[in-house]
Amino acid sequence: MKLFVFGLSYTAQAFIRFKHAQWSRISGTVRHADKARQLQLAGIQAYPLMEEFDASGLAADIRSADALLVSAPPSNDGDPCLGRFREIIASADNLRWIGYLSTTGIYGDHGGAWIDERTPPSPQSTRSVERLAAEQDWRTFSRDAGKPVQVFRLSGIYGPGRNPLVSLAQGKAHRIVKPGQVFSRIHVDDIAAVLWASMQRSRQGAVYNVADDEPAPPQDVVTYAAHLANVAPPPEVPYETADLSPMARSFYAENKRVSNRLIKEELGVRLSYPTYREGLQALYEAGEYAPVA
Fold first, then answer.
1. N or C of the chain: less Cβ packing under 10 Å?
2. Are 124 and 80 in contact (CB under 8 A)?
3. C-alpha pair distances (Å), 88 with each of 56, 80, 93, 242
4. Residue 46 three-state SS
5. 3-state secondary structure of 285
6. What is the pLDDT of residue 234?
């Protein structure tokens, strides 16, 4: 099988690693040539969209792909992949699966209540408004071109190199406390497992929330990471007085618990890391906590 990826991101590369031997060719896009060269050393044909590249090669790779993963972010002009490559994707006769990576941010704030795929979207941030618009663009494309598009709404992503253990080791971890606040999260390897399961049971128009079993207060996750590393956790800081960037503060404006029932019942997914505890334990055992001198 051949895979093409728009936006060879952290999550997309985890998906590639998950079943690497299943792909006879892997190609995709990045922004710049330096990252393209790095990925090419790993056997991935990467095209740097912000610089000159072989456009005929990119078109040929899209047209011959069996699966297409869209990890590139949208803009206020819509989805850049459809905006630039719609006709080429529509002409890809081998495509049997398209996965669009979105966000649970499109649901907005629910005061800590449980939500699922039937919950009407109510995005609050500009980023989430753009994501929802991109979802709708892909659904329209799916209907018009007859291509099997599935949408995956991801919770907060963590994994190797991107987790509270790393933040602790770098002295960048914080315990921001906002009473009643919880976040849903998901290990990047479990995202990969969900995407692979969807490929085996492709359903045009499907929408899946991708989250683990236990939404939790963010300060509890940092405390558990500190326990694993056998260090004192950073002091608790009230949300009202915390020095947060506008983007970080926007995350705290949304409070919800994301149900993962559908990925289990329809796709048969069994999470390797059902809560942050299993995920952080595995990361710690893999050597993720390495204090910086």
1. C
2. no
3. 11, 13, 10, 48
4. strand
5. helix
6. 96
Handedness of CA 236, 242, 244, 248 (dihedral sign): positive
φ and ψ of 120, to 5 deg: -65, 135
* Angle subtended by helix axes 126-145 and 80-90, to nearest 10: 10
Q: CA Rg, the chain, in Å?
A: 19
Contacts of 289 (CB under 8 A, 6+ apart): 165, 166, 168, 169, 225, 228, 229
Work out whether the CA dihedral 61, 67, 72, 76 comes out positive or negative.
positive
Question: Which pairing describes strands 114-115 and 45-48: parallel, antiparallel, or unpaired?
Answer: unpaired
pLDDT of 293 reads 43
Q: What is the pLDDT of residue 292?
A: 58
Residues 275, 131 contacting (CB under 8 angstroms): no
Average pLDDT per block of 10 residues along the chain, 293 residues long: 97 96 96 94 94 91 98 91 96 97 97 98 95 96 96 98 96 95 98 98 96 98 97 95 88 95 98 98 94 57
Domains recognised in the chain with CATH numbers: 2-159+185-214+256-273 (3.40.50.720)
pLDDT for 53 equals 84
Degrees (nearest 5) of the Cα angle 193, 263, 99?
60
For residue 168, how many other CB atoms are within 10 A of its CB? 22
